[in-house]
Amino acid sequence: MIHASQPTTHSRTDERSALIRLSHVVKDYPTPSGPFRALEDVNLEIWPGEFVAVIGKSGAGKTTLVNMITGVDHVTSGEAIVAGASLHRMNETRLSQWRGRNIGVIYQSFHLLPGLSLLDNIMLPMDFCGLYRGRQSRDRAMALLRQVGLEDHARKRPSQISGGQQQRIAIARALANDPNIIMADEPTGRLDSVTAEAIFQIFAELAGQGRTIVMVTHDQALARRVSRTLRIVDGRVGSDAA
Amino acid sequence: MIRPRWHKIFSDLLSHKGRSLLIIASIATGLFAIGMITTSYVILAEDIRSGYRAVNPPNIQLFTTFFDRDYLNRIRKIDGVRQAEGVWNTNLQIRNTAGEWEPITVKASDYGRMGAKEMGQPHVLEGIWPPDEKQIALDINRLSDAGAKLGDTVEIKLPSGVIRRMPVVGIVRDQTIGSSRTEGGFFLAGIQGYTNIDTLRWLGQPEGYNTLYVRVETEDQENKPAIRAVADRLIDDFDKNGYPVNGFITHLSSEHPNLPYVDAMAAVIYLLGFLVVFLSGFLITNTFSALLNQQVEQIGVMKTVGGSRGQIVAMYMVLILVFSLIALAVAIPLSNKAAYMLLEYISVHINFQVIELRFVPASSILQTIVALLVPQLAGIIPILQGTRISVREALSGAASNQNETTGFMYRLLAKFRGFSRPILISLRNTFRRRGRLALTLITLMLGGATFIATFNVRNSISSYIDRLGRYFLADVNLTLDRPYRLERVAADVMQVQGVAMVEGWNGAFASVVTEDGKAGETVQVVAPPKDSKLIEPILLRGRWLMPDDRNAITLSELFLESYPEIDVGDTLRLKIGMDESDWEIVGLFQFAGRSSGLFAYVNYDDLARETGMQGKSTSFRIVASDTTLDLAGQKELASRVEAHLSSLNYKIKDVGTGLSLGDKTSQGLSVLTTFLLIMSLLMASVGSIGLAGTMSLNVMERTHEIGVMRAIGGSNRAIITIVLVEGIAIGLISWLLASLVALPISKQLADIMFQIIFDRSADVVFTLSGNFIWLGIVLVLSTLAGSAPAFNASRLTIREVLAYE
Amino acid sequence: MPPERYALPVRYDSNGDPIIRMRGITKTFRSAAGEATVLKGVDVDILPGQFVSVVGRSGSGKSTLVNMITGIDRPTSGSVEIGGQNILHMPESDMAVWRGRHLGIVFQFFQLLPMLTLIENVMLPMDFCNMYPPAMREERALGLLTRVGLDDFAYKLPGAVAGGQQQSAAVARALANDPPILIADEPTGNLDSVTAEQVMEIFEELAALGKTILFVTHDRTLALRTNRRLLISDGELVNETLVAAFPDASHSLLLRLSKGAQPLDLPPGADLPPGSSAHIYLVEAGWLEVGSGPQPVVIAAGDGLDAPAVSGAVRAGDEGAKLLSLPADLVEPLLPAEPVFAEAGRSLRWFRLGRRQG
Questions:
Q1: Same domain (yes/no): C75, C184
Q2: DSSP assignment, residue B400?
Q3: Interface predicted TM-score (ipTM)
Q4: Vertex A202 angle, CA A198 and A208, to 5°
Q5: Which residues of B lie closer than 8 Å to A, measured between beta carbons?
Q6: pLDDT tens column, B190-204
Q7: Closest residue on chain C to A191 (Cα)
Q8: Residues B170, B127: contact at Cβ < 8 Å?
Q9: CB-CB under 8 Å, C127 with B712
């Protein structure tokens, strides 16, 4: 069972305003044959506590959209205001710090640091952001390990556990600084169906505890199990609801 | 509790052992060079001075014709004289292993009876000291020429022709050799032997002294003016008592004769040592750049979880620090060991004694400073570049192609149509990572350029020595024990077959008389006959002597150092024997610099008038009819001349060959060029490590392409060839660059060497031998450097590289 | 449901030996996290000139299987013979050269070498394998590039052309040594639809010329353009007849059917033994006649060509027939809602026994 930690006091926004707001966001990439428009006039709002799926084929712009929200990439034009911060106005250093505190990102390829133990991987965000220090950070990391059911493997390296287990560690890491938003970019893409289901369960539980989760996926079946679906086609975002 | 970020750094250290070792080796090489040089120099500088002081060397050497013990005792009472000893210095002949007669300088003194401290005490290596009557001790430096060892009996030939047999009872190291500044200094010195005063009569010599050694009071021993003052008093006394002073020289007690050489080497070696550090910095930059390339994904992840660029940069700087500390731990003991080995080599060749091999704190401190500074500086650029990458790029795996732009190089290389594609791959691969290539090339190039420059410098030195030989163009130089009439000697020598011409030369030691009437420096005055054919001077100013000149004199360039105002047209006053005379300076010539003291040439007749030696001479120059005689031919002629004259009962002091002079000088100076060679090879090793590192980095980054080549038909041989050719291409390009850069470097190094040895700037005489030898070396090095990576590349199976699941 | 084009399985005769023969291919990956068996005893024979697609979901083992053929990977157990040559025991270097001569490989991650121009990339395999004299190579390479429409780009570097053009150049490179077998893994995965079509057309041309072509894809529509489809699900090969018969079925269902299928051989002229309507029969080889008579009545049949059902006896034709019998309840959802009746004399693809109504 996973239970959420108590909501912390840092940068919680007013329940009424959107946690994530993209307004008229356009993103162009330069290519040898001219700029390629990856996102076209994207407008979306995501509210606290929503469990949103972003669906689209590969190449449709899902990852680009994720990057706009996490501040990993900058908009070409338009605004991205996430957890109260105007991302388009922040420099790299501030963005990194902001990201560490406000967003936990989970990737398709897990992206754990191979040279670190699982425990250290979870502690890493705390080490960088300084919200939890020393003994406290270690205890917190152990608790998160327990929550994902892997406390016996604390000292192991990522290469010594399976893909599904690595993704659980990635989720624990994403929760390390108790962020406002969980972003998941194709979290089950590399997993077989059974494991994928188990991982999705974890997300469902987190959603049930009130966390805001944005999950990008191409799997239609998953999309049916979230509270809201956004579809992205050729760089344009539309709602699935209607 | 250690923070996760340091855990990551430590795991980086341990994960890629080969790469970590490469970085540590790069840093350690620079530290090693600095440590070795500093330790050896500090010990050398201290020990050569304190070691010399410890042998109780003479501060003043006075050369005269003869004085006895009574006078010596009176001299001892002169104000400022702490200790005075007399030495009889003469040249005899000794039979060497080849059965030929070679000159030997024999010193006889009251060894063993000088009181508490022997003056100029030699270091006893084997046997006993002092030698007793009719016994001889030999100095180790030219011992091999004599071919004698302890216990042997050597044959000494007197001028009268009588041969004496003397047992060798001791082998010593005499650090004062060369201090008299006559006979060309240490490097030209011949075999040295030591015996007891009582043996002199038996050796056909007068029983007395012709050289005075004086040691001044302790507080004056490092005070040149004070020593000078004592010397003046001694000269006055000699004058008053009718003893002609043929020359004198003063030294501080710490002034080892070969000190100038040490300074020359130190300058060059420090320069090159820092160059090695500089070059190793390049290696570090290269390797760190590759390390960061491989960490791109992790950097992206760290930025995602909240790591700022500053935090990440700091992490990698700590990694460098850890590498540096490990390298320091390795380099300090190794460099000390190497320094000790180097010192042993130098001490033998520079004729000093290392007092004690010891730990030099300054060296370790310097190494620590360099270890903390240089790698950080070298690594900061790749670290800054590597952490600049955006998260998006880092995580999408697109990163590694940053430096690979399609530039003019490709278009240039595209013109190379004639090559097969595999060769094209090698050639173009060379230029893909231009930053890395540049750094690798610089290190190899500088090593090669210095190597080539060493050959040029050595060639320039021997060319110069050859030119100096033009002052001594005779095939055979004959020195008789007393003056003989010119015509008689000429007639007798001409009887020997193969002799074309004989010239009688005169010579004397004089001293410059300064304005205040004091005795100045010793000048060796040489007086060839008018119209001598046997001299081709290198004129700096003015002209050479003319037959009609009267009391004209030409001076060697060293005069300008002591008397900077002197010029053509001035009058020089010399004291020869007891008399003073004025000479008109008609020219200044280039000679051999500091090592041989002041030289001057005058016409035979003019000197003869002063010394009373008209028509007579002790020194004869013989020219062979065969103008192409080599050293062996000259030796052969010399021995026949000697045999002939001996049969006519001439008292012969020495029969030497013209070419041997150049031979000896070159040999002596070879220790300097050996140093240059060692340093350049050290730089070349840095370059090779760099090349090996570059090649293995290149291969590591291209495993995917190698897999692709495997899939389309690339056999082991094809892949190995592609990697090796790339390495060799880099080597060849570096060779071309080295050949170009060697031009200015040769001039710089030669200038330094020439300034120290010959006191002038260099005329560089280039030779291609260095270029060709370096070509061979660099081909071997680049093949070796590329072979491990090439082998690894061929061992990559397509499975490892391309399979995925 | 109606497929665009529906190709009948090629009636291959067993005269020729297979050009690719794989037996008992098993592949197990061992990692610190445990063992995963990706291929579970696969047997495949491919005859010269066949145009084969290998289909499967992500993780099914299809790419691994093809890696066995190219030698990019080796089976944990089993044998692979290509052109009669056992390739598993070849040392790496020999394998590389052999591969360069006999296999043309086009893989998605299989880039051109970035430091060579397109034409130089195409010439490289010729340099490695020495099958063409040096003087000929440039001309031949240019010809190959022209064939894929890239003659204008021949002297450009890969970085200067678009992804699709690089892929086409890779196809040209695969043809450099005129290999008898072409193997491609998701050759159109990165391409836009126009270029993808171009590449598929090249493959079809080559197939028509008799080259053996094998390609992996997850895209069913592409797979339908080949004349033989191998479907892999969870490490096992699904019966080809089932794959051809039910192109829209889920892979896991097909695998279950494949495992539950019973083969049934009928010698020429033999009657179908009495069976229950609980079975559906698929024709793997040969053909059946539906005669008139009191025997089981066909009430539903199909061969892709709409045909009315007939009743009558079912017997094997002159050459005999191989059937597969499948549990009907599993197959039911795959069948068309409207029953189709077979005419007398028609050859059937599948049929079910039952009673005619009315």
A1: yes
A2: G
A3: 0.86
A4: 135
A5: 1, 3-5, 7-8, 11-12, 15, 297-298, 300-311, 390-392, 395
A6: 889 999 999 999 998
A7: C59
A8: yes
A9: no
